[in-house]
Design a protein that fits this description.
Layout lengths: L1 H24 L8 H18 L8 H18 L5 H10 L14 H6 L2 E4 L2 E4 L2
Antiparallel strand pairs: 1-2
Helix pairs in contact: 2-3, 3-4
InterPro entries: XTBD
Pfam family, one: XTBD
Protein name: CDKN2A interacting protein N-terminal like
Length: 126
């Protein structure tokens, strides 16, 4: 009987995961690649239990979706945000593995290297 109970528990778990993934699918942006969506969906599903909207509304789900977009935009597009916000989303995303991320150079990194535009040409300062 233990084997049957275990199989039923596994089936229930798989069904729950499928339902959660189907629920999350409605929040996919048409411009997200499969790789971006997979990472953002993992972020959403990981925190969904903590951000379900209370019966009176409250917008907790909207907050989670916004945080997931901040994280994805920072990761995949190089967008920058307030340090406290970035710290929060990076902590929330801890353990989510994303391979082959793009590399970005920020304006301040360029300035640190003393790169200037002079006469329409890139020149490296001394």
């Amino acid at each position: 009987m233990v084997g049957g109970e275990a199989a039923a528990a596994v089936e229930e778990l798989v069904s729950g995961v499928r339902q959660a993934a189907d629920f999350a699918e409605q929040f996919r942006s048409y411009s997200e690649s499969e790789k971006q969506w997979k990472a953002r969906m993992e972020f959403i599903l990981r925190h969904l239990p903590d951000y379900r909207d209370p019966p009176d509304g409250g917008g907790r789900l909207d907050q989670l979706l916004s945080l997931s977009m901040v994280w994805a935009n920072h990761l995949f597009l190089g967008c920058s945000y307030n340090k406290d916000l970035l710290d929060k989303v990076m902590e929330m995303a801890d353990g989510i593995e994303v391979e082959d991320l793009p590399q970005f150079t920020t304006r301040s990194e360029l300035m640190k290297k003393n790169i200037f535009i002079q006469e329409g040409k890139w020149q490296h300062g001394k």
